Q: What sequence folds into this?
């Protein structure tokens, strides 16, 4: 009975060799035996059982005839003990190869075909790390040409961000931003693979991230950075900040120095140094297939519901694990744990998280390496953010639910078209507060909340004549449409006063019988007007775009 490329009748070590062979071929290596070794056949040759004066090495990897790497293969159940094999790999690498008396092998792999660990012996403090896949021949050739001047060596040599001990303000930064930049640089110099920047919303996380990116690109040479977001809107906001960012030591804009681009196509263009991409689209790229889902327009939870089961990412030769050197994960508290973690596990890159509200999962994922902690309370005390007060409006139905009475005519509404029909209730039926605005709509309850908010504005915002900019979070599209209709009625205002913002390209307001009563607008336009224009005064959203 066959399973993929190998038989379960094979011994465990042979199965591991077959898996390793398969992965090497995927990464562009020509797998050869020592007796048939032909170094001119391809750029990269992986030679099995290559003789050394310490015995045969499982694989020696040649690039353009030069031996650059070595693989020590072990059976799968040895995966938890691969770190015990590092000395064996190093011994073979230091041995004399047959026909090549002075080989300089810097790259070591220990692999079961399922788990693979990698060490670059040219690094200042060589440390093994787990990688998703073997690196490509051209990658090892490039790294070999760097010699001891590796990425990790360059990270240790980046000059201090504030050598003259100027104040943060003199550098055009806030204190919390300068602290994050300095600590992030220290973390990278120590070769810590993951780090977390916790900074209150509004304190300048994205600006801080761009400041770090600028220094990385300036001092480590030509690198690729991925700025990973979970909504198109966040990506476009990041791009706008990059367009206007001017470093303190250069008069040119960030995007004049480095090519930054929002990725919206199935391929990443050449020459892009900073790729801004949704985690949904990156997942599609790593799947290597059309999932028939408009990836950028759906919330993460809706994606997961449609996919049913996590589909594993696969090796992509055009997007190998070494493609990015650094990955910045925006709003990492909500997007990187279940299905989406695969995207991060795939890449052999430093991971830098950005969030205002970390939880225990966040701290755990980033190895408890928090390089910046700047809370909302600190931001309020520093005058960066405005404090908040809670004004709670409850109704009996929102707390306890309600009841449909027998023989009562109950309106039934189709969720997508909003078409209505009336049906007589056969018997008494209770509904819970949790069902409210999802399975059950009580227009009077919604109107009571809006009317109470309207009447108590003078209490909440004394001395304000106009309605303050207000954001209402709805439970779904239908709920949002009900809110918009009643807000306009209760405030006696027109369409411009209250608008809906969603991820979707356009979102029409649908009437009771399914007719479009108001054409939708581009969310970017509505969001920009909400920020910068007098109207809309009130925005209603059904997703997290509003943050």
A:
């Amino acid at each position: 009975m066959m399973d993929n490329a190998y038989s379960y009748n094979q011994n465990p070590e042979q199965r591991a060799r077959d898996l390793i062979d398969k992965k090497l071929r995927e990464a562009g290596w020509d797998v050869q035996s020592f007796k048939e070794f032909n170094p001119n056949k391809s750029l990269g040759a992986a030679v099995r059982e290559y003789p050394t004066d310490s015995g045969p090495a499982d694989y020696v990897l040649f690039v353009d005839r030069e031996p650059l790497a070595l693989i020590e293969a072990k059976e799968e159940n040895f995966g938890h003990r691969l770190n015990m094999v590092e000395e064996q790999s190093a011994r073979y690498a230091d041995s004399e190869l047959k026909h090549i008396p002075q080989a300089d092998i810097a790259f070591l792999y220990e692999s079961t075909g399922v788990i693979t660990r990698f060490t670059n012996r040219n690094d200042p403090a060589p440390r093994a790390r787990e990688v998703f896949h073997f690196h490509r021949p051209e990658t090892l050739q490039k790294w070999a040409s760097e010699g001891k001047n590796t990425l990790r060596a360059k990270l240790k040599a980046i000059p201090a961000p504030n050598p003259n001990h100027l104040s943060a303000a003199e550098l055009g930064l806030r204190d919390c931003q300068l602290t994050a930049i300095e600590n992030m640089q220290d973390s990278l110099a120590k070769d810590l693979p993951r780090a977390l920047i916790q900074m209150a919303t509004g304190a300048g996380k994205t600006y801080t991230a761009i400041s770090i990116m600028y220094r990385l690109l300036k001092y480590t040479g030509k690198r690729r950075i991925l700025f990973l977001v979970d909504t198109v809107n966040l990506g476009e906001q990041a791009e706008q900040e990059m367009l206007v960012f001017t470093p303190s030591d250069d008069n040119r804009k960030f995007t004049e120095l480095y090519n930054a681009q929002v990725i919206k196509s199935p391929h990443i263009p050449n020459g892009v140094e900073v790729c801004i991409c949704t985690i949904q689209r990156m997942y599609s790229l790593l799947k290597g297939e059309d999932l028939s889902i408009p990836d950028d327009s759906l919330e993460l939870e809706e994606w997961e519901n449609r996919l049913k089961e996590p589909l594993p990412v696969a090796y992509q030769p055009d997007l190998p694990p070494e493609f990015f050197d650094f990955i910045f994960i925006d709003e990492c508290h909500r997007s990187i744990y279940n299905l989406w973690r695969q995207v991060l596990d795939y890449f052999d890159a430093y991971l830098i998280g950005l969030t205002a509200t970390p939880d225990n999962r966040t701290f755990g994922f980033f190895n408890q390496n928090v390089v910046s902690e700047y809370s909302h309370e600190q931001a309020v005390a520093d005058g960066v953010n405005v404090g908040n007060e809670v004004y709670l409006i409850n109704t009996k139905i929102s707390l306890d639910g309600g009841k449909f009475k027998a023989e009562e005519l109950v309106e039934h509404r189709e969720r997508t078209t909003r078409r209505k029909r009336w049906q007589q209730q056969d018997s008494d039926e209770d509904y819970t507060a949790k069902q409210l605005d999802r399975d059950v709509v009580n227009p009077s309850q919604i109107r009571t909340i809006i009317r109470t908010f309207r009447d108590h504005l003078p209490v909440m915002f004394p001395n304000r004549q106009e309605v303050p900019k207000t954001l209402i979070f709805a439970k779904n599209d239908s709920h949002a449409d009900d809110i918009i209709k009643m807000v306009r009625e209760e405030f006696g205002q027109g369409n411009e006063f209250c608008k809906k913002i969603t991820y979707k390209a356009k979102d029409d307001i649908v009437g009771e019988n399914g007719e479009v009563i108001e054409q939708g607008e581009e969310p970017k336009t509505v969001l920009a007007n909400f920020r910068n224009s007098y109207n809309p005064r009130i925005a209603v959203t059904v997703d997290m775009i509003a943050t």
User: Anything to note?
Assistant: Residues 154-381 form a domain with the Rossmann fold fold (CATH 3.40.50.300). The radius of gyration is 29 Å.
